[in-house]
Amino acid sequence: QVQLQQWGAGLLKPSETLSLTCAVYGESFSDFYWNWIRQPPGKGLEWIGEINHSGNTNYNPSFKSRVTISVDTSKNHFSLKLTSVIDADSAVYYCARGMVARPKSWFDPWGQGTLVIVSS
Amino acid sequence: SSELTQDPAVSVALGQTVRITCQGESLRSHYASWYQQKPGQAPVHVMYGKNNRPSGIPDRFSGSWSGNTASLTITGAQAEDEADYYCNSRDSSDNRVLFGGGTKLTVL
After folding, report:
1. Does A89 reach chain B within 8 Å, measured CB to CB?
2. Residue B93 and residue B103: Cα distance in Å, rounded?
3. Could you tell me the end-to-end alpha-carbon distance of chain B, in angstroms, rounded to an integer?
4. Do A102 and B30 make contact, defined as CB atoms within 8 angstroms?
5. pLDDT by residue (tens digit) across B83-96?
């Protein structure tokens, strides 16, 4: 059974870079998209971006200038970097495996979530 | 075509049937998937495609779709179904992933 386990710094100051990593257990990187999704406190889900095993990325235009998602297939990890964070970037960040089989797609499973707080 | 709209809140009596809807132009070309989220927990995938349940999801959950609207129906709602529900799709023009704003389901 596939499991995702994520980690990274939980407290940042404005202008710093958010950095999170997600480890994939029980599955290879092939045939899937590996996603980052966030949820500000008390709000809904917001997709940040995705990467496949070849390193091809697809980002939410809202983040495009600040976000980098990368993959390390040798470690079965993928990572998120978000630069120049502000208070509004405070959220629970989730990694998730994405399956795309047009016209269907879904996210399953999800990581446990990492709370990131941006505060001066 | 870049938005998915959900009712913010819906309630249902215990054991009754409730339908949660999701509207958006992207749904005309890409099915919705649905996620259940309980407080303090990560979302759980409960439906995908036209009407496909992941393994382990009770058969009281079903999905449907027509035009620009996708629906998640719970037949015989249980207390443990009380949660936030999110729909998700993809914009076919730019491959962007979309989420609805979420529906808070209360089981009375």
Report:
1. no
2. 26
3. 35
4. yes
5. 999 999 999 888 89
